[in-house]
Design a protein that fits this description.
The protein has a four-stranded antiparallel beta sheet, with helices on one face. It has three helices and four strands, in the order E-H-E-E-H-H-E. It starts with a strand and ends in a 7-residue tail after the last strand. A hairpin with a 6-residue loop joins strand 2 and strand 3. 23% of the residues lie in helices and 30% in strands. The chain is of the alpha+beta class. The model has no long low-confidence stretch (mean pLDDT 92).
Length: 94
């Protein structure tokens, strides 16, 4: 399962933003994450986080001390608050 967030970072803070993602969470169900900077819109980022299932993100991570630290470090970097959506893989036969 993939969690997607589009994040609009204040321009003055972009230089610091990417470095905050050099982490690995120890939450059960966390698999990996990627951060992408938009080439067309300055300050726009795409965050993709892979989780084993929805509950790993919405329950285990959001109720963890790591999430509280995440919020403390990151939430002042952007406005508006990102819209977070979850996606399941669609198997495609080749």
């Amino acid at each position: 399962m993939v969690c997607k967030a589009i994040i609009y970072v204040y321009l003055a803070l972009q230089i610091f933003f990417g470095s905050l993602f050099q982490c690995h969470w120890s939450i059960d169900g966390y698999l990996s994450h990627e951060l992408h900077r938009c080439t067309e819109v300055q300050g726009k980022y795409l965050l993709l986080v892979r989780w084993e299932n929805l509950e790993a993100h919405t329950i285990r991570f959001r109720n963890s001390a790591e999430y509280q630290e995440w919020k403390r470090m990151l939430h002042h970097f952007y406005a508006p608050f990102p819209i977070v959506e979850h996606f399941e893989e669609v198997k495609i036969k080749h």
